Amino acid sequence: MPENLQTGSSKNVRINIHQSKDLNYWTSKFGVSVINLKIAVSESTGKAEDVEQWLKRHKYIA
């Protein structure tokens, strides 16, 4: 699990696509591929909450 999730909510957590543990955690959590996660991070603010909304809006997740 990413270090920044250990201390509180995921509301303001940024996804670091340059760390394999973040990639592994978030691709598993959202059920998406690495490339889709990277696209979502680059086209949003990079915050987990915004990335999740982007993935939903583009129908990568329900």
Quick overview:
The chain is mainly alpha-helical and 62 residues long. It contains 3 helices and no strands. Helix 2 packs across helix 3.
Task: Identify the notable features of this structure and list them briefly.
mainly alpha
Please give a structural write-up.
By secondary structure, the protein is mostly helical. It contains three helices and no strands. Helix 2 (34-42) packs across helix 3 (48-57). The longest helix is centred in the middle third of the chain and has 11 residues, at 20-30. The protein starts with 19 loop residues before the first helix and ends in a 5-residue tail after the last helix. The mean pLDDT is 90.
Count of helix runs: 3
Based on DSSP secondary structure assignment, what is the total number of beta strands?
0
Mean pLDDT across the residues is 90
Question: Would you list the SSEs in sequence order as H and E?
Answer: HHH
Give the low-confidence spans. Answer: none
Q: Major sheet: size, sense and barrel closure?
A: none
Radius of gyration: 10 Å
Amount of beta strand: under 5%
What level of helicity do the residues show?
40-55%
Please give the alpha-carbon distance between the first and last residues: 22 Å
Overall form: globular
Helix/sheet category: mainly alpha
Pfam families: DUF3606
Protein name: DUF3606 domain-containing protein
InterPro entries: DUF3606 (IPR022037)
List the helices and strands and how they pair.
Layout lengths: L19 H11 L3 H9 L5 H10 L5
Helix pairs in contact: 2-3
